[in-house]
Each structure stands twice: as structure tokens, then as C-alpha cells.
Design brief:
Structural class: alpha/beta
Oligomer: single chain
Strand content: 5-15%
Number of helices: 13
CATH topology: TIM Barrel
Distance between the termini: 26 Å
CATH superfamily: Luciferase-like domain
Helix content: 40-55%
Order of helices and strands: EHEHEEHEHHEEEHEHEEHHHHEHEH
Shape: globular
CATH class: Alpha Beta
Largest sheet: 8 strands, parallel, barrel
Number of domains: 1
Number of strands: 13
């Protein structure tokens, strides 16, 4: 995908241990100059913190990156997203992801099959529901996985005065990325990637998907999570690099992420890492991540140098970046964020 004229947006995680802290943190991050705040399905629901943040912020975009689609159904997601779009006065982005089979079936006790086809239908169903609300037309969505054919006027909120929020879909493999290009408003790029993988696989797949529905791929939004391992001295950098190796190894042990390893010439690594996970040797995973793989996927340096490298790799290629989520030390994360904001004129 060629560079575009849209200014690069800098996002920060709205991550709090106590939900009651979400409003204060959202205000702080907006005041510091971040462009967007994102949440994700983890130890808590991704929508609730954004509902709190929407009340005490005025400028920042609010993003789920991601909400697990298959843990929910299109009607519930359509309702929640519609409410957040109203509450934030048009500042919400609905980011959806599929998760992997084990989590959907064993953690959420929900059905799993044909994830790209199911995601395609999920997005279309949400849009069909919104269309029914906006126009008053009969809801008549019938698909292989989801069927929505009942919309009593009592449950119809009517058109959203701020329009419908954009839907971004998370993807790593080409089929899911093509699905994002075909039916969504953009793509959430997984942190397990390299610059070469973006150019050779991600952007071409997004363009192929867009072509199916006659859309300009440059009009689609792209939001990119980035693994940054930063430190103020050699010891801190080494510690951060070890943490990054462990994170990369966790992703690389999953079959769904093999395409990234293939592009880097390390396809066989997935089986080795997966074997270690089955043996319960979690602490050994990172030892299999060599320097080449580490530096291809992560940015490892001082806060200032890391900020410069983030912009070198991603400015002009994507619309939004989220480079702080994998930095565990709050002071170092703040330093990287400040360096980025200064370089971006925030």
C-alpha cells in the first residue's frame, strides 16, 4: 500500500486494574496529546472503560482493539457500538477479532468454524442491523452462521446522529486480511509482524479484499500494534529485550501466525515452540528467539531511538500506531510516548 496523506495517529492503551480509574486515566492521556485510546478483551470487558472515558474526554478516538467477535453475537455488538458512538459523539471505532479456536470453544463456550467466513458474515450482520435502525427497513439478514430477522420498533434506537462507527477487523493470515478489506472499514494489524511482512503480505491482501467490493484500499484505515523493547541503559534494554523475546515466542508458538515466520525464513520454529508449550516449559520459549527474529518484529533501543525507529518504519504506511502496550515499565513507556509525541508535534 502506498503512503497516504492522512496524518499518523498515536494511540495509548486505556489499561487499568480498577475500572473506576478509567475516567482519570483517559483524561490524562488526552491531555498528554495522544490521539486515541484503545482497550482489549483481556481481564475485563473492552467496552466498559470506553463508556467511562467517553464522558470525560472530548477529542480522543476510542477503540476496541480488540473485542472478540465470536464470544458475542452481531446484535449485542451492534447495540453496544451504537451506544458508544452516541456517548462519544462520533469518536468510537469498533475493532473486532476472531481469537483462536481453543479460546472460543474452551474459554467462551461458543462455536468455532471457518473464522474468516464467520467474521465476514458477522461484520455484514452488524451493518445490516445498523441499516435497519437508520432507515426503518425490515431487518432481513440471513446467513450461514447468523440470522437476524426480527426488529420490533420497541427495540429500534433509530438512526445514530453521529453516523455508524467504523469497523476494523484484526487479521494475520491472508484470508482474514482479505475479509477486512472486503467488508470492514479497515484492518487492525497484529503486533507479530515485520516491516517486510506488511509490504509483502498484509497490504496486498488488504488490497485484494477491497477489490472484491470495488473499494479503494487507500481509503481503508490501518491500525498497527507494535512491540517496543526500550530502556534507559544497557541493563534495562537487555531486560526489555528478554521480555520481547518471550512475547514473540508466545505468538510464534501458535499455528495461526506461521505466515510471519515463513516470510522471515523461520517456519520450522513454530513446531519447536509449540512442543515446549505442551511440555509446560513456558520460561524456555524466549530462548529460541534469535536476534534476527527479535529485531525484525520488535524495536529494541533507548526511548528516543525507539521513537525514531517507530516513525521510520510506520509513518506513511499506516494510519494509527500503538507502540506502548508491550512496555512493562511505566516510566520507560512514558519516556517513549513523550519522545514520539515530540517528534509528531503533539
Amino acid at each position: 500500500m502506498s503512503a497516504h496523506a492522512r496524518p499518523l495517529q498515536l494511540d495509548a492503551a486505556l489499561a487499568v486494574a480498577d475500572l473506576a480509574q478509567a475516567r482519570a486515566l483517559a483524561q490524562q492521556l488526552e491531555a498528554e496529546g495522544f490521539d486515541g485510546l484503545y482497550t482489549f478483551d483481556g481481564r475485563s470487558d473492552p467496552f466498559l472503560p470506553l463508556a467511562l472515558a467517553a464522558q470525560d474526554t472530548r477529542r480522543v478516538t476510542l477503540i476496541t482493539a480488540i473485542a472478540v467477535a465470536f464470544a458475542r453475537n452481531p446484535m449485542l455488538v451492534a447495540q453496544t457500538a451504537n451506544d458508544l458512538q452516541r456517548l462519544s459523539q462520533g469518536r468510537f471505532i469498533l475493532g473486532l477479532g476472531s481469537q483462536i479456536k481453543a479460546h472460543i470453544e474452551k474459554r467462551y463456550s461458543m462455536p468455532w468454524s471457518a473464522p474468516a467466513a464467520r467474521m465476514r458474515e458477522f461484520v455484514l450482520a452488524v451493518k445490516a442491523i445498523w441499516h435497519s435502525w437508520a432507515t426503518g427497513e425490515t431487518l432481513a439478514f440471513r446467513g450461514e452462521f447468523y440470522t437476524h430477522t426480527l426488529m420490533n420498533p420497541l427495540f429500534n434506537p433509530g438512526p445514530n446522529p453521529h453516523g455508524n462507527p467504523p469497523i476494523l477487523v484484526a487479521g494475520v493470515g491472508p484470508t482474514m486480511i482479505e475479509t477486512a478489506g472486503e467488508v470492514a472499514d479497515g484492518l487492525l494489524i497484529h503486533p507479530f509482524h515485520s516491516a517486510g511482512f506488511l509490504d509483502a503480505h498484509v497490504f496486498p491482501a488488504l488490497a485484494r479484499g477491497a477489490a472484491r467490493t470495488g473499494r479503494d484500499p487507500a481509503a481503508l484505515q490501518t491500525s498497527c500494534q507494535i512491540i517496543v523493547a526500550a530502556g534507559r541503559n544497557g541493563e534495562e534494554v537487555a531486560k526489555a529485550a528478554a521480555e520481547a523475546r518471550a512475547q514473540i515466542a508466545m505468538y510464534a508458538s501458535t499455528p495461526a501466525y506461521v505466515p510471519v515466520l515463513e516470510q522471515l525464513g523461520q517456519a520450522g520454529l513454530q513446531a519447536e515452540l509449540n512442543t515446549l508449550t505442551k511440555q509446560g516449559r513456558w520460561n524456555d520459549l524466549g530462548t529460541l528467539i534469535d536476534d534476527d527474529l527479535l529485531h525484525a518484529v520488535a524495536i529494541v533501543d533507548s526511548p528516543n531511538a525507539a521513537a525514531a525507529e517507530v516513525l521510520r518504519r510506520y509513518a506513511g504506511k499506516v494510519d494509527r500506531i500503538s507502540p506502548l502496550g508491550y512496555i512493562r515499565d511505566a516510566e520507560i513507556a512514558a519516556a517513549v510516548g513523550k519522545a514520539l509525541r515530540l517528534r509528531m508535534g503533539r
